[in-house]
Amino acid sequence: MTVAFRTCPLCEATCGLALEVDRDAHTVTKVRGDADDVFSHGFLCPKGVSIKELHDDPDRVRTPLIRQADGSFAAATWDEAFALIAEKLPAVAESGGRDAIAAYIGNPAAHSLAFLLYGKVLLKALGTRNIFSASTVDQYPKQAASALMFGTGTTIAIPDLDRTDFLLCLGANPLASNGSLMTAPDARGRLRAIRARGGRIVVVDPRRSRTAAEADQHLAIRPGTDALLLMALLHVVFAEGLESLGALSDDHVDGLDEVRSLAADFPPEAVAAACGLDADEIRGVARAFAAAPSAVAYGRIGTTTQAFGTTASWLIDVLNAVTGNLDRAGGAMFPLPSTGLQNSKGEPGRGRGARFGRWASRVRGLGEVFGELPVACLAEEIDTPGEGQVRALITVAGNPVVSTPNSDRLAAALDDLDFMVSLDIYVNETTRHADVILPSPSPLEKAHFDFVFQGFAVRNYANYSPPVLERPEGLPDEWETVLRLVGVATGQGPDADIGAIDDFVLRAAIGREVGDAHSPWHGRDVEECVAELAPRTGTARLIDMMLRTGPYGLTLADLEAQPHGIDLGPLQPRMPAVLRTPSGKVELAPPSLVADVPRLHAALAEHADSAGGIVLIGRRDLRSNNSWMHNLPLLVRGPERCTLHVHPDDAARLGLTDGGQASVASRVGSLTAPVEVTADIRPGVVSLPHGWGHDQDGADMAVARAHAGVNSNVLTDEAEVEPLTGTAVLNGIPVTVAPVQAAAPAPLAAAG
Ligand SMILES: Nc1nc2c(c(=O)[nH]1)N[C@H]1C(S)=C(S)[C@@H](COP(=O)(O)OP(=O)(O)OC[C@H]3O[C@@H](n4cnc5c(=O)[nH]c(N)nc54)[C@H](O)[C@@H]3O)O[C@H]1N2
Ligand SMILES: Nc1nc2c(c(=O)[nH]1)N[C@H]1C(S)=C(S)[C@@H](COP(=O)(O)OP(=O)(O)OC[C@H]3O[C@@H](n4cnc5c(=O)[nH]c(N)nc54)[C@H](O)[C@@H]3O)O[C@H]1N2
Ligand code: SF4
Ligand SMILES: [Mo]
Questions:
Q1: Which of the two ends of the chain, N or C, has the fewest CB atoms closer than 10 A to its terminal CB?
Q2: Which residues of 312-331 are buried (b: 16+ CB within 10 A; e: fewer)?
Q3: Local confidence band at 45 (pLDDT 50, 70, 90 cut-offs)
Q4: What are φ and ψ of residue 6, in 5° steps?
């Protein structure tokens, strides 16, 4: 029995795990938090513990599966699976053009070295514009606002949680989600520490979430009105002369007068009714935020997957900037991870900035964002005939049937495809539609390095985990499967030389470094660099290169020698070098966002006359992870969690009872869910978690099926997108709610 240390890949918190390994049984016998991890210090949550059940799960796919004529799946060899892919996939492109093949990239891809390092290579090889991902049901509004303000989509200002004196948390519930775009293992402990050192936490959420319950103040806002609230907070800051750029000099900021004049139209009194908040309370928060020695505003899912997602994300950073809290300790800061970010490459302080809408979706004409089209368009691109119609789909670690709006339409569309390949570890609601499923190794059988989330962390650190267990005989590594697909997509057939493709990718990456005047490898000989990285191959070699050319000059060997990670210290001010805007300044008033402010005025006017129907929002629970961890007994035990939260006043008005059933209907669909009456939600708002609905025939997840729940995205509307990024509106869906009469109870026959 040995102990191995490995970063947990299951959420953004990146906790260090200490695993007791039984190599003979090819499993781990015990999962603990790694007390010596430089960042997580032993913290872990129930999902981390369940990594053992995930590895051992008998339903996890371990060999390729090929769909049979009767619709069932049969195990196949890798060669058989790739032979079929090489026969079918190129044929779709030949008859329908490259755009006839679509790809959907799901959330776990952001934790996978293979997909992070080689996913783009595959997408480029496919040459399709029909690229979709979970990002347009998630964080693209935040990334778009950040790109417009700071120059790149990964230049995200992260709360300096461990030093702040005031956290204004909007539409995020880190006590359940463990933090997002804020990598912070033990978010709860770090939040408690804010209050313990005399700081203050204000939570803005239509629900009294677990985070709200532990805060000093909770503003139970009406869904979708955060941008109005933020405008009002800015209004107070400007009107009361509380503004200060702090360490940012005037030279580094553009658009201050413009945001001041925009905010002038939104005094607290004007927005209070629409937000469902008290004007004095809004004033109080603005004053306290501006007066705090340091403060940070932070927003997540509740602020991004709503009608004003990009607007709210933008205004959050404007508030940080104009109160002197951008780029200062305790405020919103820019991490500098060991492998660098776009904002640590090339000329410091200036860049090309961001451009969106370079092409548009075929059917609805929604614009491209960061090279992708909004996933709310995926179903229509498949089910609408015409030139350029999508006829084949590759899903990579994604479950769009459960995760994206109007699930029923997408599920039907998938059945219509000529060919579908899924890289996935389960036969679930999405992959059951595939012709071929290609599995990945278990998380314990692959290396891990969270270079995305190290770039969004509240502290600079680096941590690399080699595989804990060897891969079973014959099972390729995830990156090998991706490169084999690249071989098919580039016309090299099912048996292309993966090593040669890998070398090609590496040389291209080195070529960019030697050509970058600001890279430590500038001007070097490519072959000499290649030799320096030998004998590594694949993902390990690419990471080694990224570390060596990164801001700390580390090597992979340095990281391998430190299984608990390397602490690179608290976040440091990075302004103005971090900027990549064409002006070399922070753009406080990006023209496309300013041009959209009239829509905010219109929403304000509309709220004033709205009759106040019921709207649906989502929520997360600590023991869930989007749609895919409900097959693990440890995570589904206990009371049912897929319930409809309803306020007691609404329950009384609508005739709903706690424990009874409600039918919920929207423009696109309807479902029946168990009711949980709770005063923790605002009247007029109901909440249902996403990621459930595991009762689909053809899926193969026995535990999940026994705890099926309902799929909330049957109700969300693919027509409702945030206009700036096309991100789906998943919060604030108009619904009708009515009681479902239980079957008449059996008569109490002679009960004694
Ligand atoms: N209504 C509503 N909808 C939402 C949200 C919401 O708040 N409300 N949240 C949205 C957000 S933030 C997100 S990120 C999306 C998530 O959307 P998706 O990424 O589409 O869905 P997941 O549930 O994360 O599914 C992940 C898939 O990856 C597979 N998988 C897991 N590990 C691996 C692996 O190592 N390799 C491979 N190949 N596959 C693997 C799983 O089996 C599963 O099929 O959902 C979005 N949908
Ligand atoms: N346990 C668990 N952890 C997870 C995940 C999971 O599924 N389960 N998913 C992971 C992923 S992919 C992501 S992206 C992150 C998300 O991380 P978070 O954003 O922290 O996730 P949520 O818990 O959904 O918190 C969103 C909150 O927004 C509130 N809300 C809804 N509408 C509005 C609104 O209009 N305005 C405001 N102000 N609030 C609103 C909801 O009530 C909810 O409490 O979590 C990650 N971590
Ligand atoms: S908080 Fe996230 S990273 Fe940490 S143990 Fe839980 S799932 Fe894993
Ligand atoms: Mo997400």
A1: C
A2: bbbbbbbbbbbbbbbbbbbb
A3: very high
A4: -155, 140
